[in-house]
What does this fold into?
Amino acid sequence: MLLVLVCLKHCSLYSKGRFLGFKRGQRNQHEHTALIQLENVSSKEETSYYLGKRIAYLYRAPAAKSGSKVRCIWGRVTRSHGNSGVVRAKFRHNLPPRAMGSAVRIMMYPSNI
It folds into this structure.
C-alpha cells in the first residue's frame, strides 16, 4: 500500500518541454513545424519514445470562454530534430511567436509500448 502511495505522488500524465522556435533554414522559417526541447532528454535515441505523443500549449486569454481564461493549442510530435533531444511537432493551429521559450506539456498518450 505504501508503495502505491509513493508512486501516485510522483507520477504524472505529462512531461515538460520548451518551445524553442520554428523549423528554419538559413533564410526561410516554416511556422507550421515547431521545435520542442524535451526535459531530461539529451539524445536522438531517447526521443523515439515520444514520437506520436500529443503536446498541449496552455495559455491565458484576456476574456473568459466557457467559464475559463485558460486555453489550449494541441499538437503532435512528428519526428526528432538534430542529435540533442529536440523534436519537431505540428500543431492544429500554428503556435504564436510570443510563445517562444514558454513551457509545453508532452502527454504520455497515446502509448506505443
Q: What stands out?
A: The radius of gyration is 16 Å. Helices lie at 2-10. Strands lie at 14-24, 29-38, 54-65, 68-81, 86-91, 103-107. The chain has one helix and six strands.
